[in-house]
């Protein structure tokens, strides 16, 4: 930092790199918006923005929880399975009304989060393995509860999925509110500081007397609860419960959004704004390619390139 | 990611350093822990197989065993490469996509002769493995992210080759490739023989060559390995190349077995392979493990699958629940044993 300040050359490469590392993902989103405005017909319409935002909302919600977990130097592979589980439970309990259903969904999700957190915090299992078990088992359980797709006809669920306030869909409002809440928790609360300290160095946090186990368990429970919210919202939007394919590869999309947004996998640092922008960047990229009739295979290859480029650019921001 | 996660959980209540624990008299129990960690999966496999053969008449039959062996062969080859990667402390999420890509390339190439059908998947999947290795070793990117990108990229490439999954390339009947995949020698299917040969070579390479020593050294402690003169970057590049090659080969053999390059295969295979390796006693933190364990891990997953299929009334989704629960139990047991070994 001092080195960058001392140099007063008109063009400072170090500062450009630092700027890109900090704001590259926002610049990417802005660039895609500009490019699309120029080359994509009907891009600048309220309808299109609404569609894109509604599609990206569940990814953002899952990625928020994933960002917290990654901040503790962990990873949660079970989020897709939790979405499927939430969909199954919703279908099973919807007969009793929306509110009781949401409570049962939250209980299931908290159970998954507790199991993940306990394996990581008390047994000392690596997060990737601890959550792998529930990734496999959780979707199995979702399919045991509800073996196939089921149409849901419930007015309150339908309005949750497609209703809006002054033209802004509930899905977007919920995603935005959750993002603000999580950002506040990370930046302004003791819990947030403890989380980052644990991600920075778990032994040091332990020696400093932080409640490491409690924080880790809360982080995994929050991550599972957010995934369940995304699962219910996606189910509400589809008006169908689809435990087979809902949330498939969601863990990878969420991790990608977090990492592209500049949160290092090595923990100790979390960027919530970057995470939201990362999810939006990938959604816009996919939409751009699809709108110009490029086949899905290109989308996947482009995603792969963006991921490597973003991580390469953010290299060295974490520890070491 | 896995390379940095080497810190063992520290318990605040137990601040006593490990060297003050009792070194005398614990040697036997330490050896027992090591034995359970290395061969626990084998013991479980034997018990499950024994119980299953008493419970179901159709389990302990030659037909069923040879079906299970053939069904395990392809996953086992993928898990072999994964074992090398995990011992270096890395992870390879791209193997499922490379498996599918290898199958499609083999089937596509079979129009131009057997050599093309075998060399094309090996060349392409091996190259993608080399790129993975270069990014991990030279650019120091997290293996998780690099191979995740390769997973997306390779699947995209496979879709591009097959007109977004609409085209299926067939492998001609009676060709050498078809014979290699579908034929059998001395009562065992050819893929099973190939798998056994690959595992024997893998065990030899890991245990008896300098490269094998480097693989363990890099996974044990990368900095120490570098200080001792082990070629850390080259070793990492080689293990990812090996993993890519083996995934491509497994895909090609599977395509030969099915007589076509099926585009929907391989998704989730990376996780099955990782599960098998972990169940087989290889630690995800690196530095410890053996290929025989991974073979046992694959067989265990297949036997459980088979048993659940034999219980006709059970839905196949229970298979996932049981696999997940089983993985959790094994991992908890392993972690517990691993920590005991560290404390003693």
Automatic annotation (TrEMBL), chain A:
<keyword id="KW-0472">Membrane</keyword>
<feature type="transmembrane region" description="Helical">
    <location>
        <begin position="296"/>
        <end position="314"/>
    </location>
</feature>
<keyword id="KW-1003">Cell membrane</keyword>
<dbReference type="InterPro" id="IPR001851">
    <property type="entry name" value="ABC_transp_permease"/>
</dbReference>
<feature type="transmembrane region" description="Helical">
    <location>
        <begin position="20"/>
        <end position="40"/>
    </location>
</feature>
<dbReference type="Pfam" id="PF02653">
    <property type="entry name" value="BPD_transp_2"/>
</dbReference>
<feature type="transmembrane region" description="Helical">
    <location>
        <begin position="129"/>
        <end position="147"/>
    </location>
</feature>
<feature type="transmembrane region" description="Helical">
    <location>
        <begin position="52"/>
        <end position="70"/>
    </location>
</feature>
<protein>
    <submittedName>
        <fullName>Ribose/xylose/arabinose/galactoside ABC-type transport system permease subunit</fullName>
    </submittedName>
</protein>
<feature type="transmembrane region" description="Helical">
    <location>
        <begin position="167"/>
        <end position="186"/>
    </location>
</feature>
<keyword id="KW-1133">Transmembrane helix</keyword>
<feature type="transmembrane region" description="Helical">
    <location>
        <begin position="102"/>
        <end position="122"/>
    </location>
</feature>
<feature type="transmembrane region" description="Helical">
    <location>
        <begin position="215"/>
        <end position="234"/>
    </location>
</feature>
<keyword id="KW-0812">Transmembrane</keyword>
<feature type="transmembrane region" description="Helical">
    <location>
        <begin position="77"/>
        <end position="96"/>
    </location>
</feature>
TrEMBL record, chain B:
<keyword id="KW-1003">Cell membrane</keyword>
<feature type="transmembrane region" description="Helical">
    <location>
        <begin position="321"/>
        <end position="338"/>
    </location>
</feature>
<feature type="transmembrane region" description="Helical">
    <location>
        <begin position="277"/>
        <end position="301"/>
    </location>
</feature>
<dbReference type="Pfam" id="PF02653">
    <property type="entry name" value="BPD_transp_2"/>
</dbReference>
<feature type="transmembrane region" description="Helical">
    <location>
        <begin position="237"/>
        <end position="257"/>
    </location>
</feature>
<feature type="transmembrane region" description="Helical">
    <location>
        <begin position="115"/>
        <end position="137"/>
    </location>
</feature>
<feature type="transmembrane region" description="Helical">
    <location>
        <begin position="182"/>
        <end position="206"/>
    </location>
</feature>
<feature type="transmembrane region" description="Helical">
    <location>
        <begin position="40"/>
        <end position="60"/>
    </location>
</feature>
<protein>
    <submittedName>
        <fullName>Ribose/xylose/arabinose/galactoside ABC-type transport system permease subunit</fullName>
    </submittedName>
</protein>
<feature type="transmembrane region" description="Helical">
    <location>
        <begin position="72"/>
        <end position="95"/>
    </location>
</feature>
<feature type="transmembrane region" description="Helical">
    <location>
        <begin position="144"/>
        <end position="162"/>
    </location>
</feature>
<keyword id="KW-0472">Membrane</keyword>
<keyword id="KW-1133">Transmembrane helix</keyword>
<keyword id="KW-0812">Transmembrane</keyword>
<feature type="region of interest" description="Disordered">
    <location>
        <begin position="1"/>
        <end position="26"/>
    </location>
</feature>
<dbReference type="InterPro" id="IPR001851">
    <property type="entry name" value="ABC_transp_permease"/>
</dbReference>
């Amino acid at each position: 930092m001092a080195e960058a300040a001392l140099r007063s050359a008109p063009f400072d490469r170090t500062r450009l790199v630092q700027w890109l590392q900090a704001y590259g993902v926002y610049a990417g989103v802005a660039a895609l918006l500009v490019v699309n405005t120029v080359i994509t017909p009907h891009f600048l319409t309220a309808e299109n923005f609404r569609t894109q935002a509604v599609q990206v909302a569940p990814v953002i919600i899952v990625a928020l929880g994933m960002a917290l977990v990654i901040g503790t130097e962990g990873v949660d592979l079970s989020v897709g399975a939790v979405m499927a589980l939430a969909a199954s439970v919703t279908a099973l309990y919807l007969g009793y009304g929306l509110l009781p259903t949401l409570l049962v969904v939250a209980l299931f999700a908290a159970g998954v989060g507790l199991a993940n957190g306990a394996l990581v915090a008390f047994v000392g299992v690596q997060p990737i393995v601890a959550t792998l078990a529930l990734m496999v088992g959780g979707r199995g359980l979702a399919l045991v509860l509800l073996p196939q797709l089921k149409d849901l006809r419930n007015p309150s669920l339908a309005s949750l999925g497609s209703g809006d306030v002054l033209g802004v869909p509930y899905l977007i409002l919920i995603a935005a509110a959750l993002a603000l809440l999580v950002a506040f928790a990370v930046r302004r609360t003791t819990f947030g500081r403890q989380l980052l300290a644990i991600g920075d160095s778990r032994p040091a946090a332990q020696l400093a007397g932080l409640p490491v186990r409690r924080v880790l368990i809360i982080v995994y429970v929050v991550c599972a609860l957010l995934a369940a919210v995304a699962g219910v919202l996606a189910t509400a939007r589809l008006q169908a419960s689809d435990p087979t394919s809902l949330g498939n590869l969601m863990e990878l999309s969420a991790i990608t959004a977090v990492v592209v947004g500049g949160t290092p996998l090595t923990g100790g640092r979390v960027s919530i704004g970057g995470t939201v922008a990362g999810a939006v960047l990938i959604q816009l990229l996919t939409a751009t390619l699809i709108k110009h009739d490029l086949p899905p295979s290109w989308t996947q290859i482009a995603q792969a390139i963006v991921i490597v480029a973003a991580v390469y650019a953010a290299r060295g921001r974490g520890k070491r | 990611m896995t390379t940095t996660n080497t810190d063992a959980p520290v318990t605040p209540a137990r601040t006593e350093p490990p060297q003050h624990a009792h070194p005398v008299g614990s040697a036997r129990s330490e050896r027992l822990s090591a034995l359970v960690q290395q061969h626990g999966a084998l013991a479980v496999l034997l018990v499950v197989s024994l119980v299953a053969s008493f419970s179901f008449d159709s389990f302990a039959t030659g037909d069923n065993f040879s079906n299970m062996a053939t069904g395990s062969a392809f996953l086992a080859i993928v898990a072999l490469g994964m074992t090398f990667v995990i011992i270096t402390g890395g992870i390879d999420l791209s193997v499922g996509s490379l498996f599918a890509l290898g199958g499609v390339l083999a089937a596509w190439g079979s129009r131009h002769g057997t050599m093309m059908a075998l060399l094309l998947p090996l060349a392409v999947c091996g190259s993608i493995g080399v790129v993975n290795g270069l990014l991990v070793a030279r650019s120091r990117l997290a293996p998780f992210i690099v191979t995740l990108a390769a997973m997306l990229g390779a699947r995209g490439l496979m879709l591009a080759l097959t007109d977004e999954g609409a085209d299926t390339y067939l492998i001609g009947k009676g060709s050498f490739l078809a014979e290699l995949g579908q034929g059998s020698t001395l009562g065992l299917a050819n893929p099973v023989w190939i798998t056994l040969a690959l595992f024997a070579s893998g065990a030899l390479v890991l245990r008896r060559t300098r490269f094998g020593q480097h693989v363990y050294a890099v996974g044990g402690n990368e900095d120490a390995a570098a200080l001792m003169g082990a070629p850390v970057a080259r070793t990492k590049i080689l293990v990812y190349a090996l993993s890519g090659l083996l995934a491509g080969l497994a895909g090609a053999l599977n395509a030969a077995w099915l007589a076509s390059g099926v585009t929907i295969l391989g998704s989730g295979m990376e996780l099955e392979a990782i599960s098998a390796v972990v169940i087989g006693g290889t630690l995800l933190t690196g530095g410890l493990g053996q290929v025989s364990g991974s073979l046992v891990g694959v067989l265990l997953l297949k036997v459980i699958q088979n048993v659940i299929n034999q219980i006709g009334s059970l839905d196949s989704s229970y298979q996932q629940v049981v696999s997940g629960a089983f993985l959790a139990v094994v991992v908890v047991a392993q972690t517990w044993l691993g920590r005991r070994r560290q404390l003693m």
